[in-house]
Amino acid sequence: MTKVLRRNLILVLLAAIFAMIAVSFPVGSAHAAVGSGNTYGNVAAVQARLSTLGYYRSTVDGVWGSGTLSAVKRFQSDYGLKADGEVGSATAKKLGITLPISGGISAGKTTANVAAVQARLRTYGYYKSTVDGAWGNKTLAAVLKYQSDKGLKTDGVVGSGTAIKLGITLSSSARNGGISAGKTYDNVKSVQTALKNAGYYKSTVDGVWGSKTMCAVMAYQSDHGLTVDGVVGSTTLKSLGVTLGGGSTNSGGSSGNISSSDLNLLARCVYGEARGEPYNGQVAIAAVVLNRVRSSKFPNTISGVIYQAGAFTAVSDGQINLTPNETAYRAARDALGGWDPTGGCLYYYNPATATSSWIWSLTVHIKIGRHNFAL
Asked: Which long-range contacts (CB under 8 A, 24 or more apart) does 321-328 make?
């Protein structure tokens, strides 16, 4: 091999090596990042501020990539900072953010609070997902972008300032909305149907008030300039075009023609069997009693069903004789008005304490609180 050929071969090999190095470590692709960590919140806050300032034109998605890196470098260059793509304290300060970002709601991430925030952000075009009352990354990103655009402290926390700007009232106590005329089966069904027709309620029209119904109400209220509280009062009803009754029925039974003694007994059964359970769980106990009254398998009176031998623990241990509270009475009236959260169940049991092998053979239709409800 001649010297020239050997030299050319060496040059070719060196060129190949350098090409491989260039591929492995491309020029200008240094993975600079946020000094306090590339968490979703940190990156989203940086993107939100850069977007407001005109440097970042993509979606605020909390994902560090080449677009975010380039935007950071351009910002740093324009503001006399070292254009290294590293969001350290100096760059963060110039951006007007304090890292790290955690985000949240000062009054608590309850379903109602989160849904109210999502509903308003959705109306304003910042939140693109479903109003579901669940705090997540998409909600955080929307909050950060809104705060940045509105000149608020860009920390992802919905405090009083952000809440006022959004036009919502937050609460530190748990709320689940409702219907001013009562959450009877027919009332809830009418509201759900109207919301479904308007494109806000995507689930089954089942006459059961729950978080999905409340969230749909809040989204509707926000889009229509109403108070975003999840409560279907006269103004929301008028906007929806719905007229409600105070206690219509579902498949028989109403509180209007029942004796006071039967109402009292039903409330005592609810109180003895389910006090401390979620409200819809208390209504469900009363509904099971009424479902049995209507079934040919059981006695045809409330007292006959409740006092049937071995039917209810509250009768066996004497708790049926306790004085019920107003919640138990209200649950009994709602069940008599037609609200059946169980969908027609005839049985229920607490899986933590049930000992009957037969009860475990039943098909569980729904679980509410500590009770399984079965057909």
From this structure: 321/268, 322/268, 322/271, 322/272, 323/268, 323/271, 324/264, 324/267, 324/268, 324/270, 324/271, 325/271, 325/275, 327/275, 327/279, 327/282, 328/267, 328/268, 328/270, 328/271, 328/275, 328/282
Q: CB neighbours (10 Å) of residue 153? A: 14
Say how far apart CA 248 and CA 338 lie, in whole Å: 6
Which two tokens mark 335?
Answer: 């069940």
- Per-residue pLDDT tens over the stretch 180-189: 888 887 888 9
Given a contact cutoff of 8 angstroms between Cβ atoms, the answer to whether 337 and 290 are in contact is no
List the helix and strand counts (H, then E) for the chain: 15, 7
235-281 pLDDT, tens digit each:
999 999 998 864 433 333 344 457 888 999 999 999 999 999 999 99
Long-range contacts of 66-72 (CB under 8 A, 24+ apart): 66/29, 68/43, 69/31, 69/32, 71/47, 72/32, 72/46
Under DSSP, the state recorded for 364 is E
- Reduce the DSSP state of residue 373 to 3 states and report it: strand
